[in-house]
Amino acid sequence: MTLTRDDAQRGTPAPAPGTRTQQKRWRSADVRAGYAFLTPWLLGFLLLTVGPMLASLYLAFTDYNLFRSPSWVGFDNFTALFSDPRYIQSVKVTAVYVLVGTPIKLIAALAVAMLLNLKHSAQGAYRSIFYAPSLIGASVSIAIVWKAMFIDDGMVDKIGQFFGAPAGGWVGNPDMTMPMMILLAVWQFGAPMVIFLAGLKQVPAELYEAASVDGAGAVRKFLKITLPMLSPVIFFNLLLETINAFQVFNSAFIISGGTGGPAGSTLFYTLYLYIRGFTDFQMGYASAMAWVLVLVVGIITAVFFKTSKSWVHYSGETR
Fold this sequence. Notes:
The protein is mostly helical.
């Protein structure tokens, strides 16, 4: 605390000796207390996240099968990936799932959110019903029930036969397993739906009223008002759901029995990573796969943020 000339003229008393030192001690005590509360999280982050990541990065350059010490092989694991037919198949399956399933899921979530945004009775009940599947998540129990519904002579197969479809079920048909997996993902659209609904609540009603006065129809309002105003929410959901789609594992493991069949139609990237690491015990190869996935997801995330400048519009922003 510095005594100014005006303070001296008014006779303001000087600060008590030791006040600044006491304040420094209080700040130091606050800092120590803050770090003490952060210690459990920091230890967990270092031991359970950073540590395993660094270990897997090292193992990615080694030949390691869990039963002997790792031996350094350089980039051999990474070069072997692109000559592995099953790895290429896992990339194709995952790419189809991400490129097809994610947009369909987001479109379904936005459509239901717009319906729930309309004023009608029992709004809370409808929101709870549509959100309920997301509470369960991609659990093992849901995958088991889903498989039982789509197997030969299951409920879906019986309904299909009633309408004249051939018998056989979807699980054993390589052409139908991907639609089945995408349908399971779309069914759990509750989380992005709630985010879309929150975004719709923030769109000013005056914009729609002004558009109605200008003679704009429902489609034009959706394209010119709803989508631009929702662009930050769309960006958030698109990024989050894309990353989640790359990590699908439980449903693929249960439905395929851990093999990725039939004919590799459910051989998702993470499932094949699990097979190479914990079935074939090629942990170095699996670590290389994991780091390729991290790199790909990181690049896609960077591209999303880079391109978002051209289509994501924030309130009050001038372009």
